[in-house]
Each structure stands twice: as C-alpha cells, then as structure tokens.
Amino acid sequence: MSKPEDSPLNGRAAGFVTRLIAYVIDAVIVAALIALGGWIAVLLDNLLMTLNVETRSTLAAIYVFLIPVIAALYYVVFWSLTGRTVGKWFMGLKVVNPEGRPPTIGRSFVRLFGYLVSAVVFWLGYVWVLIDGERKAWHDHMANTYVVYDYSRSSRDQVMTGAPSDQGSDQ
Amino acid sequence: MTDSGSVEPDSPEIQRDAYATVVRLVAGGIGEGIDRLLQASAALDEMDAEPDTGPMMVKANPDVMAAVGWVAELPQLASAAADSAQRFAYPITRTVGVAANTVAYVAEATGLAPFIAGLTEPTRTAIEEERQRLTKVGTAEYARGRVLAVYSFEESIGAIVDLISDSPELAELVREQTIGITGSAVNEVRETGAAADSLTEGVIRRILRRPVQPMPPQVVEEP
Known about the structure:
The complex is a heterodimer. Chain A is mostly helical. Chain A is 58% helix and 8% strand.
C-alpha cells in the first residue's frame, strides 16, 4: 500500500474554482438538511392533526427560524472544529487563521456573516478571490482567515498525475 | 429416468427426462384436477336434480370430497415437482466448473493467472473430482447420483464462499484496490481543481493587466 504524503500545495492559498466546487457541495448538503427538517415538520404536523391540535402556523414559524440556524450550525461547527466542511474536505481545502489553526467560533460567525456581505453585490465578494493577492474573498478579509490547500496523496496518485514524488523523480 | 447403465447423469436424455417429469407433474396435475372438478360438478348437478337432501349430503358426496382432497394434495405435487427440478443441480454444478475455468482463462490473459489459479485450484479440483464421482455413481444408481449432485453443488458454493472469506490476501487486495481507486479519484479531482484555479486566475489577471503569480501564494506554513 502506498504511503500518503502531503501535497506540495499545502499551506498555499486556494483559488476560485476549487472553492466554488466546495461551496456548491456544501450548499447541496445544507439544502438537504433543510429539506429533512421540513419533512420532519410535516410529519409532526400530521401527527398532531390526528390529535386535533392546530399547529401548522407555529410549526411553519419554527421551521423558518430553523433554516438559518441549521445553515449556521453546519458552517460554524465544522469551521471552528476542523477548519473543513464536507465540501472543503472533498476538495482538499481548509479554513485557517494566520497561525494556521482553525478559526475560533467568533471568527467563524463573522466569516458566515461575511458570506452574506460577499453575495450582496452580485457575488463580487466571492469573485474577489481571482484578483486578490492572497486569494482572499471579502469574508476572509472580514474574519482574517485564509482558505488553503491541505491534503495528502499517495505515491500512486503522484504516478497517475505525473507529479514529482520521492520514488519516481528525485531530481 | 433411464435404466441404462451407460448413460451419464448429465446426458441430454436424462435432462429431457427431468423436464418431462416436471411437465408431466404440472400438466398432469392440472388435467387430473380439472377432471375431478368436472366429476364433482356433475355429481352436484345430479344431486340438484334430486329432492333436497340437506348440506350434509353434499359434503358427504365422494366426488366432492375427492376434489377437496386433490386440492389438499397440491403442496405434495409442488414438492414432487421441486424434487424433480433438483436434477438440474448436476448441470449447474458443471456450469460452476466451467465458470471457474473461464475465470482461469481470463486470468491467464490478464497476467493474474498464478494468483487466481492458486486461489481457485482447490475448488476446481473438488468440483472435477465430484463430477467424476457422480459420473460413476450416477450411472450405477441415478437416485443416489441426484443426491450427490445436490450435495456437490452445495459443497462447491460453500467452498467458494469459504475460500473468499478465509483468504486474507484476497480481502486485503480488494480493500487496497477499493481505497486506492477512491482515493485516486478524489485526489485527481483536487489536483485538477488546483490546476483550474491557476488557469482561471491567470486568464482573469491577464485581462485585468495584473501580474500573474507563478504559484499560489504561501499564506501559512503548517495548516
């Protein structure tokens, strides 16, 4: 079995395309979680209807309140604990502070709020990654965070992708 | 069924006999059942023509009772048909043997022959020995041959399952290949994404007449 080895890109700022793919994956997961919450609310409503308890408006209000909570929990918990959401893990990315550690809960909340700010002007805050010297989006500037490459790969991958490896090309 | 001592259990004649038995049981059973129901119906018509004798008389009619009895025998007929179908176990056993040989030929072509041959050799030998034994025993005593064919089939399957479950090399090989393929696919996406990052950024920066960075900026040492 090939031994995993850190990518030479580790610690370098990630670019627009990988971040966009990770963002889309996370958005799909959050949407699925929200849909699951809606399904549970409908089940609960049906159950209470059989008991002649009118709860539809209350449940709807709770559900609307829960949507941002679910999204916030997903991002803030993952960022502050590991620096990675599922999408970022898949794309080999990590959110870190200038010391290279996952952001604190406070910074994570600021970063999440920054998502909204970045999206306000036609998502210009996200596209900013393409022209920023450190590849930082607006929300990264607000929370003072970086998104960096961080993944390992086996020597098998290096052979497949033609990347340099200790075994194959020492020069 | 044949009494010929020179006919092998897997011969077309015996297979035809097996098919015929199943067909005879099913078709004959249906024919017999229809016949008995017609008899029962005729008996009831006859009784309707006579003065009312009460429901107990209908129940006691022998033809009606016979029809009910035939229905009760249906599970036994099905069981007999299933028993006859077991004759196909022997051809299936041979098919397993042929499949094993086919795997060996494919393995030969792909260069994995020594490894797979080592794994499948005991099973193939067991199947072949069982087949030869059945050929001898089956010609002398067909009923016993049938039982042995079933036994052989079950043993072959059991041997293959044991072989796979007891082979740490095979399990390790499968595990390593699965992880390797998945990991490679994910890392390929990552590498391609990183290349696309630089490409996209380079294009945009050229359009905006900004300096193109040869490598992504190193922002932290140890993430």
